[in-house]
User: Fold this.
Amino acid sequence: MGHVYLVGAGPGAADLLTVRALRLIERADVILYDALVTDEILALGPQAKKVPVGKRGGRVSMDQALINRLLVSTATKHEIVVRLKGGDPMLFGRAHEEIEACVQAGIAVSVVPGITAAFGAASALTTSLTQRGLSRSVTFVTPTVARGSQASPSWAKAVAAADTSVIYMGRGDASWIRDTLLNLGMPATLPVVLAEDVSRPSSFNVKGPLADLPDLALKVGSGPVLMMIGEVFAETEVALDLFDARPSSVEMLGSTKAG
Ligand SMILES: C[S@@+](CC[C@H](N)C(=O)[O-])C[C@H]1O[C@@H](n2cnc3c(N)ncnc32)[C@H](O)[C@@H]1O
Assistant:
């Protein structure tokens, strides 16, 4: 019986892997990997059999129950099975279900952390998510599968309560997210940065006020995107700044930019 390792691949750049992750990738017999794992990282384990089990929002992908079964059956035939996941396995990665499947099948399972996309983005933007006097709380949320009749869903309340928020898997719901947050009383002028393809050569960031979130979402491409919201981003410099691009927005921002 083999050992399953749920390994965080980080946001994309190979040199953001942990040393432990690299050692396991180099020794793996089989690597089951998500769509967000880059070729650069997969190339670090040339000896391993690579099996894509990719999940990418909106696209047809392998059902989670099937992934769980594949993980278990692979571990009955191979010694070192690496389940490689984008970012950190323990954040929006369905790690719990995979761990449970292994435990139930009597297969040893370990988890290796990775750099979650939010931390990769904060570093790339050189913007600390907490800042003395400005931000004491950070929330990571996803509104996916939350759509419904609820006027203020729990993810939105969490965003409204935090000083800084990072929204995962939100791009397709930009209008709904903007409307929900404005309805909760969040300022229309609050700075938002959309960070696409964090830590990859194709990385792209756009910034503007919360009121413009749907427009910002139209500016990014088809790569994975984070929505980052909070006053900490007021001074963040990005490739495309819609505050600067439109004089009316700069005026609207007023004290936010100065303070
Ligand atoms: C299923 S979640 C996985 C999150 C992952 N476990 C982590 O810790 O980063 C996928 C979402 O993470 C975000 N994401 C992951 N990698 C990213 C990257 N390199 N750049 C921007 N966003 C990323 C996007 O919001 C994407 O839709």
User: Anything to note?
Assistant: DSSP finds eleven helices and eleven strands in the chain.
